[in-house]
Amino acid sequence: MVMIKVGLIGYGSMGSMLVGSLIRSGRIKPEEMIVSTRTKNKLQDIKNLWDSINVTEDNCEAVRRAKYIILCVKPLQIKDVLLETRHCITPDTNIISIAGSVPMKFIEKVSGAKVTKLTPSLTSEVLDGISLVCHSASVSAEEREYIETLLGGISTVMKVKEEDLELAAELTSCMPGFIAAIFRNLVDSAMRQESGLGRKEAEEMVMRTLYGTAKLFIEKNMGFDRMIERVATKGGITEEGVNVFDEMLPEVFDEMFRRTLAKRKVVREKVESGLENV
Length: 278
Prior knowledge:
Layout: E1 6-9, H1 13-25, E2 33-36, H2 40-49, E3 54-56, H3 59-65, E4 68-71, H4 75-85, E5 94-97, H5 104-111, E6 114-119, E7 130-135, H6 141-152, E8 156-159, H7 165-171, H8 175-191, H9 199-219, H10 224-231, H11 237-274
Parallel strand pairs: 1-2, 1-4, 2-3, 4-5, 5-6, 7-8
Antiparallel strand pairs: 6-7
Helix pairs in contact: 8-9
């Protein structure tokens, strides 16, 4: 009988992405995973994708059968899931929580388990990007290595202090949405200019250029300043555009961080108020 290594509770957008990406990475086999979801049609969908994967509607079954449990539920659901399963959790259980606004100390207090916080990114769907991790002191070196090796198949793993996770998440997990919004606005502006270019053509130009630019950053180890030096001839057209960005974007991004981090604070306080009296 194959030993189940990883359980996953919650099969929403991020949960399904993680399961699919981890299996495609080859770091874990379907039969080494168990997925728990209360949505009956999702159970069959999962089995249709991977016949040998283990599925259940019982969160406790997943906890009993796997050492590593990835909690892919919303922050306000964490307390209920922990209270439901804590009689099944042992001191050897490793809980990996993607709920960034729920402190590790709370999960440890309620569950008695070892805890890792994980901030995944949609980019792991193509086995790339960054996964942020933060381990509690009780997670052993061997356990840390297993978790980071597992996630290393779908991303580059970066270890971050818990107090820095929120800002780091803005630069990783949120970034695909931010990038899409920035370049959607760029294409919108291009469409307002006098030209025969269609929107589909403009979007393809931008997307393929983004892809090539990202490859230059990574494969040629080219930093931001070096990229600008290579493209923006002094006194030229590109430099003119870069100067506009340098003049106007700092204020835009400062305001973005002000609002997003303030929103995180509101969510965190709401979550923490719901965690009281446990």
